[in-house]
Design a protein that fits this description.
transmembrane helix; transmembrane; elongated; 2 domains; ABC3_permease_C; cell membrane; 405 residues; membrane
Length: 405
């Protein structure tokens, strides 16, 4: 207890040294809090944009569908499954989908396409499909031989609204599936590659075309909170409890995207390491200067019987207390900055494009880890870096020091 009192007194006695050491810790901690908060916010913005507007946070398929997709690997629509999806805690919305490949033609132009059968109401609730329609409108509630095509496909086919489009594919019963539809909309998913082959049909008409009445390939779901995806996924899997179905989070069915984001996130820690290094150098310099300035003081302490380990404790405790004070002050500054960035973000003018997605504003996120990681890092860094000057102080020779000071 006496050592702690002495440490507090020394901190406030040497104000110039305290301010220099404290500033390096305060600035380093605050920058780290802002950097992690903004980094996490950006990371989650990209993930949420990618999953919420395209794939969903969770998907349900026939158990082997993801390994090798096939027209025949389907899920039977049922009221029981729909009730489970509607009642499971944490699920915001869900939408069924049907997929196949086909060949379309408008006049003399022909192109290969991916057929996507969607429920227009549920798809809009889940992925805001209405907002992706650049020209025209969404499907009628009652199937009316309508089709929506991607803007890239429209350019390839030189197709316009109200043009008739012919589709040819293979039905599940082995017959040739073909029909005539009217183009009622041209859409943009934000992915140019996908837009060159996207051919949307009303789910019921897609089922009729492919002879898959009451069957779908996928159910895409959104959860209310992105950080609850795994928890909700496990809960849903236990509720469904069907060995013939797989319930997968986005980290599984979009593994390439997940790995890319993890690599990007890991790379961001290089900047954090640089910040920590700057803090460490600043603390080492100021504490070492302090020890050199206080050689006579340490000499007197040893002369009156203070043990070397007690001097080491005193120096380390001084720096640790100062680090804690800076963390408290820095937490206030960091929280204020991240609160502002979480509401207003950083705007990029015309926006930046990442993986086919456009972002005009990147916002920070306020979370515990953005404070905890810098706090633990600064305290450990300060304590470890202070050991070298502390050991030097403990080795002070009383007679020699007092003679020359």
């Amino acid at each position: 207890m006496l050592i702690i009192k002495m440490a507090f007194r020394n901190i406030f006695r040497q104000r110039r040294r305290t301010i220099l050491t404290g500033l390096s810790m305060l600035v380093g901690f605050t920058l780290a809090v802002i950097f992690i908060g903004w980094g996490d916010g950006t990371y989650n913005n990209i993930i949420d944009e990618f999953t919420r507007n395209r794939l969903g946070h969770i998907q349900i398929h026939e158990k082997t569908y993801l390994d090798r997709p096939s027209l025949y690997k389907t899920i039977q629509e049922s009221d029981d499954l729909a009730n489970i999806l509607d009642s499971t805690k944490g699920i915001e919305s869900w939408t069924p989908r049907l997929f196949s490949a086909g060949l379309v033609s408008v006049g003399e132009k022909t192109a290969g396409v991916q057929i996507l059968g969607i429920d227009p109401i549920r798809e809009d609730q889940t992925t805001q499909f209405d907002k992706k329609i650049l020209q025209g409108r969404n499907f009628s509630r009652i199937p009316s031989k309508e089709a929506i095509i991607g803007k890239g496909l429209a350019q390839i086919l030189k197709a316009e609204l109200d043009d008739e489009i012919v589709i040819i594919s293979q039905a599940a019963d082995g017959s040739i599936a073909n029909d005539l539809y009217t183009i009622i909309g041209i859409s943009s998913s934000g992915d140019d590659i996908s837009d060159r082959s996207s051919f949307y049909l009303h789910l019921r008409e897609a089922q009729e075309l492919l002879v898959l009445d009451g069957r779908i390939h996928e159910i895409a779901l959104l959860v209310k909170k992105l950080n609850h995806v795994l928890k909700t996924n496990n809960l849903l899997a236990s509720e469904i409890n069907n060995p013939d179905l797989s319930v997968s989070p986005w980290q599984v069915f979009a593994k390439a995207f997940y790995d890319a984001m993890q690599a990007d996130k890991a790379g961001s820690y290089v900047m954090l390491i640089i910040i920590v290094f700057i803090v460490a150098v600043g603390v080492l310099n100021t504490v070492l200067m302090s020890v050199l300035e206080r050689q006579r003081e340490y000499g007197v302490m040893k002369a009156i019987g203070t043990k070397p380990k007690q001097i080491i404790k005193l120096v380390v405790i001084e720096v640790t207390i100062l680090a804690i004070i800076c963390i408290i002050l820095g937490s206030g500054l960091g929280y204020g900055a991240n609160t502002f960035l979480s509401k207003h973000g950083i705007k990029f003018g015309e926006g930046i494009t990442y993986g086919g997605m456009k972002f005009e504003t990147m916002k920070a996120e306020i979370n515990l880890r953005s404070f905890l990681i810098p706090a633990v890092t600064v305290i450990l860094c300060a304590a470890l870096v202070s050991l070298l000057p502390a050991i030097k102080a403990a080795r002070t020779e009383p007679a020699k020091t007092m003679r020359f000071h």
